[in-house]
Amino acid sequence: MNFNLIDIYHHMGLFARCIAYTLVAFALASLIVFFERLFFLFRTKGADRAFIAKGGRMLESQQHEAFVVEASKARASSLAKLLGGGVKTYLVRKEAPQGNLGAVELTRRELERIYERVGADVRRGMSVLASVGSVAPFVGLLGTVVGIIESFAGIAKTGSGGLGAVSAGISEALVVTALGLLVAIPAVLMFNLLSTRADALVLSLDLARREFMDHLEDMHSTGGTKAARGEGAMALDVERAALREGHDVRPA
Question: Which of 34, 55, 60, 122 could staple 190 via S-S, CB 3.0–4.6 A?
């Protein structure tokens, strides 16, 4: 029998065809996930750059309300989802303080929760590629084993032996294994490529989260220092005024 895929397909049994259909479905699922995730990562990268160009200046000038509005417009940006939710939580808690947690600490906890959700969204669908890359060879091997069993069963039924009697069935069975490898190898390569890009994006989000928390802590630390200096200056002015009036307000 010549190596003709069409002839091999027509000689396949029902089980081997089901295995082949399953592997083709695996291949289609891998391609759909790969191109969808690749488009998502490229779109998110561009949206993040456009957002940080505007939002960075707003954070430096402490225009937090405008930053939240800008983040709500950048729907494709993972960075906007992360920092926008954090700034929104910070503003709400700052305007209506309640409970034992301050605005900065509550924002830190909210950023951790948003970071986990965004990270899961970035890696969404990649388990499909990992599953196809690990399962497809075994599915193909299953088809090969069943095909060889059927070939030897045919020999036992007809009573004829020899290599020529089993070569056609074995070649058909091995084609299924080759198809499984053909599906699995690109799936593994696509998974590694997407994993590298997703890890880079998640790392940049983590760095942005930490830098934003440094910004909030520095802002509150500066504000607290200014307030303490203001209270000290006010007390000194009161003491000087009292001395001018002839009253000594210093402790004995």
Answer: 34
CA distance 8 to 163: 18
Burial call 178-203: b when 16+ CB within 10 Å, e when fewer: ebbeebbebbbebbeebeebbeebbe
- In whole angstroms, what is the distance from residue 136 CA to residue 190 CA? 14
pLDDT tens digits, the chain, 252 residues: what are they? 455 556 666 666 677 788 888 999 999 999 999 999 999 999 998 998 888 888 888 887 888 888 888 888 888 889 989 988 888 888 887 776 666 677 788 888 889 999 999 999 999 999 999 999 999 999 988 888 877 777 777 666 666 655 555 666 677 778 888 889 999 999 999 999 999 999 999 999 999 889 888 888 887 776 544 444 444 443 434 344 444 444 443 444
What sign does the CA torsion over 111, 112, 116, 117 have? negative
Q: What are the extents of the domains in the chain?
A: 15-216
pTM attached to this predicted model: 0.74
Inter-CA distances, 223 with 86, 217, 231, Å: 20, 10, 12
DSSP string, 221-238: HHHHHHHHHHHHHHHHHH
Positive or negative, the CA dihedral 198, 200, 203, 207 is negative
Which two three-digit tokens encode residue 34? 């790969």
Task: Evaluate whether 202 touches 124 at the Cβ level (below 8 Å).
Answer: no
